[in-house]
Amino acid sequence: MLPKPLTGRTSRFLRTTTLVAAVVLVPILLVLLCGGLWFNGQLRASLPLLEGSFSSEVLDSPVTIERDALGVPRLRGENRRDLAYALGFLHGQERFFQMDLQRRQAAGELAEIFGPAVLPVDRRARIHRFRDRATQVLGQSPPRIRRLLEAYAQGVNAGLGQLGSSPPEYHLLRQGPRPWQAEDSVLTLYAMFDLLQRFGIDVEDGLGLMHQRLPPALFDFLASQGSAWDAPLVGEAFTVPEIPTAEALLPGAPPALPEPELPEDEVKAARFTPENRADYGLAVAGSNAWVMTGERSEHGVALLANDMHLPLAMPNIWYRARLEWPGHEVTGGTLPGAPLVVIGSNGKVAWGFTNSRADTSDVVLLDLDPDDPGAYLTPQGSRRFDRATEVIASQGGREERLEVLSTVWGPVIDDGPDGRRRALRWIAHDVEAVGFGLIGMESAATVEEAIAVATESGLPAQNILLAGADGTIGWTIAGRLPQRVGHDGQVPVSWSDGTARWDGLVPPEETPRIVNPPGGQLWSANNRMVDGPDLRLIGNGGYVTGARAGIIRDRLTALDRADEQDLLAVQLDTDARFLTRWRDLLLAELDASALEGNPRRQEFRALIEPWEGRAEVGSTSYRLVRGARQFLVTDLLQHLTAPASEDDPTWAYLNALPRVEGPIWRLVTERPDHLLNPEYATWREQILATVDQLLGYYEEAGIPLDSLTWGGFNQVTLHHPLTLGVPWLGRWLNPPVEALPGDFNMPRVQQPGYGASQRMVVAPGREEEGIFHMPGGQSGHLLSPHYGDAHEAWESGEATPFLPGPSVHTLRLEPQDRSSLPVTARP
User: Fold this and answer.
1) Rounded to the nearest 10 degrees, what angle do helices 182-213 and 130-140 cross at?
2) What does the pLDDT look like over 417-459, one tens digit per residue?
3) Most buried residue, 261, 527, 774, 814, by CB count within 10 Å?
4) For the stretch 234-255, what's the b/e string if a residue is b when 16 or more beta carbons lie within 10 angstroms of its beta carbon?
5) CA atoms of 292 and 300, how far apart (whole Å)
């Protein structure tokens, strides 16, 4: 049948509709097209300058910047100040938004660009008043350091100003970048204090609640200081305390605490639930570093390996660079926001870090003056709180005023679970404990000189591992430590009568150290390093079980003469020995009687029997054994620590018990009746029930057990900060998701958003044989070829060179002709 011809009325309607659509839609499309072209033009205009020249009145002499095929720069100049300017220029062009977020996070100024949603983060930061402290640190810094920070800031602003447009993130946020100030580099350092030491504050907080609510014998047992997994440099493994007897668990009931008033989302976020405990870690990771003497290396020069484990993001936290000026050649990883090489080698000494988990903070219980609610008691008598008002600006012009109370010990942080007001004594609040003394490492000629530099530096307390060109190796704590008196710092106590206190800082020369130990090797993996008086001095800020450190120690011991490739292989080791005994325990319980008539258990046993013993992508047995342990440990701790979690639903036992494996294993092997959860008749029943919970979880989710490979969970992606709020931007800003091997409690630490922020192996003086790779790439600009071109080598563990390769681009920074400028005083 032929279609009916259009009537005149219909034809006129279509013509009118088409005309209206053209009039309305065409301008919209043109606007969108022009907007897209404009935005694309702005993006390209904000790409960094790679070649040509740039002149500055700040420079005293020319600086040549050569970039290799990965964008790694080699900076050559006549003095360190000019190189600080040049490094700032590169950071400002390649990583300014990252730097901006770091200073804003420390200063509590994120809401200015992200709006009210991040006000809770800003409020937490403002308590520490780090911007004011940063000004004090800058003012008290040695003149040479201050000149470098000022030159660096001038370089950052010059690099930012040279861009043809603001970095892309500011266009998306409809914001403009704020110039960099010298004190902003101190804020960057404070951001690292928060990142690296916040865990120690949480540990003390959690232990304090346990200490308050649990019987003393049970607290001492669960808060064990170590276990057979310990792998210290000095001393033996600690013994897990005896399981407390039933009689020891019968003291009077703990005091009643007020009912907590907490938002439901805070409660839910803090607790492990069946939905998130199957694969995420009941473990705490950190970083690896080790050194071997020249006698243990293939070439007679001491070797250093370092892979620092941090939250992964785009761009990566580190920026690679090589700095050359007369008498100095320094190569390694720099931190955007700071003018120095943080880790690397100067040709004579190589150095790397792990978080020491030293105890550098104390939660102080305050005793209020009964006659004056605005005052508290001190050893010198009653004293009124110091009060300051912090004004927090938020996007859209809104402001919030926050009153910050402070004591002689530090800021008031909260009212504890019992309603008692608490303050924080933190080494980050001591101006003399914060600074950029680490820059002296660039000139250290021996390991002994490097140790002296490290112990006086103003870093968050770190294990520093050192390798010398003369074959010497060493370890110490880089950064300052508190001198405690009258308490061990494990749980919050009152300081009102002066019995508990800090007597300043530990003198640098008294900081523990080891040089050239018997055996010719030193290792660190966030574990306990020493014992006795040295351990009491360093304190326990949440050091972890030594399983990872023990594997590293054993791998090094097995090496006769090591080279760089040997040490990279240790960094990539996925040895799952930590879970092997758990797999054996599960097999023992899943006997014929447990399997009879239960096809799910039968399948589970069949899948964990072929034990690969490694956290590899294709391993099903690893994922299932790990998940069963997770469920069992969670159930045990929720039962044993119930009084604490009932009083404070946001309390998470993982924040208090980073070494819980020792006590838990003693429980599941000795099986005391009086500590069994009354929901179960026997320990065997509880173990099998948690296996059933795991299997039920996956059955409900519709996931076949034989499809549960470790790589199915360990899907690693790096998020650009903007994609956390606008996920669809991840298509352009995040690298593809990739399944990777590794986990906690083994050298190759890897979780979906956490892992090695770099891997480095180097012998000082033999840098041409060294190895360095990192996730992402050099640039923070999504259109740069170096935004993600280093990522594949990091994923695969490829041994890319430590030194920059042949030059691909050359940029020259020139001193501006000052003959026509007014005469000014120069530092």
Assistant:
1) 120
2) 888 999 999 999 999 999 999 999 999 999 999 999 999 999 9
3) 527
4) eeebbebbebbeeebeeeeeee
5) 10
